[in-house]
């Protein structure tokens, strides 16, 4: 009797599902052919395009293992499905306008940038009636607690171990979601990259299409990140699908590009916004000013604000607050205060945020007298009474900058005026005292809170627990955790994590791990808890136990970051356990952790230190297989290792490969090449390689370093042949290189070589070191080369650096 395998059974199910889908399509088509045939035809075409572009969609979302790269498989594949959607209004696909690479932008001239901003504002219709239309994506708080939303979030969290059954469940649930609930799911994701992947995954599902409000919400989520390319794609989708684009949408994409460090591309969005026919309004103008301020372009922001007025867009309080923030970030407090004073004359009164921004800088710089003067101005000139919010703000800012005593003064003042500072304000002061190691003062504040009837909460006690751990009094921290129960306050995960961190900092990582294992029923460890113990074990050299913690983390659904993984890999390589480091990285990659280029490079460096180049090159191949492109550091590590082993031809090939990939060699790359090529007397090959490298990147001291390295290995004649390339610039660095060569000639007993170098220096208007030349002259005299000795010193006399012998005698 034949038994079907699981794969055969799944294949039959998929076949039946497709047959049912086709049957549904044709039945719908025949039912209302004349009225909806074009619509159904377009749907069928869309579905076919998406199925053709996403053959592996079954595991695209759940099977994605890398969350550290925006250019993931799902995002790249999503590009293919865009071509079936309508005509676009503006050219958002133009790579000249939006580059895909994350490389440093070409520096633009100030005139070009200012002209572009001026042109954008000048094109605004000045006669158009301006009204601020608030467009908000309203997501009810109840939606985030909806059982359907919570179940979908749970399934998304399980994506590392997805099965066809789980994905099928998620597909059915997604089709039942309301647009507001989809927005709630996007907002609920702690990692915005996961939210973006879910957005694309859901968009490809059969009989589901995102509501326009979901696009707006997705852009809002991405505006909090550096995922600018993802935000650009969402905007492009909206254009192609003819979804109304709000000015705020362009603002969200601008902020995302700004966060990623692409200021120029963020500004180009204003031009694209015009081409899309979207009107410029005050919200986008304020976003532009804020982006310029964040990019340290305050002067441009000021000019932009002035131009706004000229075209009829009146700046509001948000506009001025952005400019005030720009002044404060430059520590120009006087200019910020002056702008606040000018705001009423410009038709816009300052609000409390205007004053709070300046107060933050004054708190940071401990200018308490000026802080009080500003509070008086706030009352007299702006009629803004310092209230409880004002005092709470001051207390928190002073505590943040380590001024607990001053914060306590304002707390007392607030209470004298009848304001009640809550436990959050008291806790900020307690935390500040604990950071400074003043635990007695912190305990006094807690006792004062109890006497006032302001009960300390778990955050207050946790701050003191952390303070005890900071000064090494872990036993006191344990006692305090026990006392928390007496005061009706149950310690939480943060409290216990602070204690475990104290144990690890004091070399008791095994005790911390045992305490975490006994947490069941009392508290639930989180990702930070596991990381604390993992790093404690790592610092104590307990590598196997640290790796076990990583496996346990992943099993619990907590994914260590690339930085944490790299620290553990580095520690394993330092103790010679590179094989275990490679295994750890591979397992983390399989489990869905975000492994980056640095992790691979660290493993490669570990193998290179052990002189296991074959294993290092094998890891390089693994990088390509996992779509991780080596960077300059990766190549330099391998080039140096190959050079140390005398494999110069392979080092040359690796360098050529690096240049071919468009990567620029670092100074370390140059030094490594110079050392190993000169050591193995491959000067001609080195010179060919240098010429190729210098075509891509100017490196002024390249030949200087080659000459000095040749001198180090005693190859003075080869170094002398390259002297002409150094003496072209005749700089101080070139003079130092010549001196190195002269000393090497002297050391090798060849003063005539030093004489030749000195003469060539004089010919290039470089004056060699007088003491060194006197030493050369003595050596020449001792070898009976009197003419050369006299000519050398005569050169100094001609230039006035040595008086003639007759004058010396007269002076005597």
From TrEMBL:
<dbReference type="Pfam" id="PF01535">
    <property type="entry name" value="PPR"/>
</dbReference>
<feature type="repeat" description="PPR">
    <location>
        <begin position="351"/>
        <end position="386"/>
    </location>
</feature>
<feature type="repeat" description="PPR">
    <location>
        <begin position="596"/>
        <end position="630"/>
    </location>
</feature>
<feature type="repeat" description="PPR">
    <location>
        <begin position="457"/>
        <end position="491"/>
    </location>
</feature>
<protein>
    <recommendedName>
        <fullName>Pentacotripeptide-repeat region of PRORP domain-containing protein</fullName>
    </recommendedName>
</protein>
<dbReference type="InterPro" id="IPR002885">
    <property type="entry name" value="PPR_rpt"/>
</dbReference>
<feature type="repeat" description="PPR">
    <location>
        <begin position="666"/>
        <end position="696"/>
    </location>
</feature>
<feature type="repeat" description="PPR">
    <location>
        <begin position="631"/>
        <end position="665"/>
    </location>
</feature>
<dbReference type="Pfam" id="PF13041">
    <property type="entry name" value="PPR_2"/>
</dbReference>
<feature type="repeat" description="PPR">
    <location>
        <begin position="526"/>
        <end position="560"/>
    </location>
</feature>
<feature type="repeat" description="PPR">
    <location>
        <begin position="316"/>
        <end position="350"/>
    </location>
</feature>
<dbReference type="InterPro" id="IPR011990">
    <property type="entry name" value="TPR-like_helical_dom_sf"/>
</dbReference>
<feature type="repeat" description="PPR">
    <location>
        <begin position="281"/>
        <end position="315"/>
    </location>
</feature>
<feature type="repeat" description="PPR">
    <location>
        <begin position="422"/>
        <end position="456"/>
    </location>
</feature>
<feature type="repeat" description="PPR">
    <location>
        <begin position="387"/>
        <end position="421"/>
    </location>
</feature>
<keyword id="KW-0677">Repeat</keyword>
<feature type="repeat" description="PPR">
    <location>
        <begin position="561"/>
        <end position="595"/>
    </location>
</feature>
């Amino acid at each position: 009797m034949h038994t079907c395998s699981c794969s055969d059974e799944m294949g039959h199910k998929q076949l039946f599902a497709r047959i049912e889908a086709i049957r549904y399509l044709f039945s719908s088509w025949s039912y209302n052919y004349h009225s909806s045939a074009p619509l159904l035809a377009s749907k069928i075409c869309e579905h076919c395009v998406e199925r053709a572009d996403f053959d592996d969609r079954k595991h695209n979302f759940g099977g994605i293992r890398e969350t550290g790269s925006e250019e993931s498989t799902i995002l790249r594949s999503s590009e293919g499905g865009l071509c079936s959607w309508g005509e676009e209004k503006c050219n958002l696909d133009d790579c000249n306008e939006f580059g895909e690479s994350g490389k440093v932008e070409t520096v633009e001239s100030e005139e070009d940038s200012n002209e572009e901003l001026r042109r954008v504002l000048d094109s605004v219709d000045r006669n158009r009636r301006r009204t601020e239309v608030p467009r908000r994506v309203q997501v009810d708080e109840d939606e985030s607690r909806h059982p359907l939303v919570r179940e979908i979030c749970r399934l998304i969290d399980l994506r590392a171990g997805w099965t066809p059954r789980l994905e099928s469940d998620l597909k059915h649930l997604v089709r039942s979601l309301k647009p507001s609930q989809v927005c709630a799911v996007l907002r609920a994701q702690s990692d915005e990259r996961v939210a973006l992947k879910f957005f694309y995954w859901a968009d490809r599902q059969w009989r589901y299409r995102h509501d326009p409000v979901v696009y707006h919400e997705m852009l809002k989520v991405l505006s909090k990140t550096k995922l600018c390319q993802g935000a650009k794609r969402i905007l492009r989708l909206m254009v192609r699908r003819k979804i109304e684009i709000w000015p705020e949408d362009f603002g969200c994409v601008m902020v995302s590009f700004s966060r990623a460090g692409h200021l120029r591309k963020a500004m180009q969005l204003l031009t694209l916004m015009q081409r899309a026919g979207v009107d410029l309004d005050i919200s986008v103008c304020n976003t532009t000013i804020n982006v310029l301020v964040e990019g340290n372009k305050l002067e441009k922001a000021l000019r932009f604000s002035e131009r706004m007025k000229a075209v009829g867009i009146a700046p509001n309080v948000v506009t001025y607050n952005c400019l005030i923030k720009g002044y404060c970030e430059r520590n120009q407090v006087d200019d910020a205060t002056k702008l606040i004073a000018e705001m009423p004359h410009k038709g816009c009164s300052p609000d409390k945020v205007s004053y709070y921004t300046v107060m933050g800088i004054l708190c940071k710089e401990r200018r308490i007298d000026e802080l009080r003067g500003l509070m008086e101005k706030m009352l007299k000139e702006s009629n803004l009474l310092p209230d409880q919010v004002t005092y709470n703000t001051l207390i928190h800012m002073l505590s943040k900058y380590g001024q607990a005593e001053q914060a306590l003064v304002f707390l007392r003042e607030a209470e004298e005026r009848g304001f009640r500072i809550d436990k959050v304000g008291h806790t900020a002061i307690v935390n500040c005292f604990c950071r400074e190691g003043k635990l007695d003062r912190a305990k006094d504040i807690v006792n004062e809170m109890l006497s006032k009837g302001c009960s300390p909460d778990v955050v207050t006690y946790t701050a003191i627990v952390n303070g005890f751990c900071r000064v090494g009094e872990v036993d006191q921290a344990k006692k305090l955790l026990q006392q928390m129960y007496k005061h009706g306050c149950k310690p939480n995960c943060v409290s216990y994590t602070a204690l475990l961190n104290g144990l690890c900092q004091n070399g008791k990582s095994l005790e911390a791990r045992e305490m975490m294992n006994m947490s069941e029923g009392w508290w639930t460890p989180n990702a930070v808890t596991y990381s604390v113990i993992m790093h404690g074990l790592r610092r104590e050299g307990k590598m196997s136990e640290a790796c076990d913690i990583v496996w346990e983390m992943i099993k619990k659904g907590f994914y260590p970051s690339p930085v944490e993984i790299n620290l553990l890999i580095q520690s394993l390589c330092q103790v010679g356990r590179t094989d275990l480091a490679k295994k750890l990285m591979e397992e983390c990659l399989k489990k869905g952790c975000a492994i980056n280029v640095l992790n691979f490079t660290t493993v490669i460096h570990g193998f290179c230190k052990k002189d296991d180049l074959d294993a290092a090159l094998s890891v390089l191949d693994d990088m390509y297989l996992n779509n991780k492109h080596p960077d300059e550091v990766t190549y330099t590590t391998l080039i140096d290792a190959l050079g140390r082993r005398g494999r110069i031809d392979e080092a040359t090939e690796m360098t050529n490969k690096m240049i071919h990939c468009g990567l620029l060699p670092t100074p370390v790359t140059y030094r490594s090449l110079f050392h190993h090529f000169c050591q193995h007397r491959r000067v001609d090959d080195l010179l060919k390689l240098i010429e190729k490298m210098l075509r891509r990147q100017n490196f002024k001291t390249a030949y200087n370093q080659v000459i000095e390295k040749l001198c180090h290995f005693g190859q003075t004649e080869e170094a002398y042949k390259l002297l002409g390339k150094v003496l072209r610039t005749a700089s101080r660095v070139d003079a130092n290189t010549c001196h190195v060569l002269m000393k090497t000639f002297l050391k090798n007993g060849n003063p005539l070589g030093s004489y030749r170098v000195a003469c060539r220096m004089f010919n290039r208007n470089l004056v060699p070191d007088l003491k060194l030349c006197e030493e050369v002259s003595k050596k020449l005299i001792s070898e009976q080369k009197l003419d050369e000795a006299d000519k050398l010193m005569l050169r100094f006399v001609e230039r006035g650096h040595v008086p003639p012998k007759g004058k010396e005698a007269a002076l005597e």
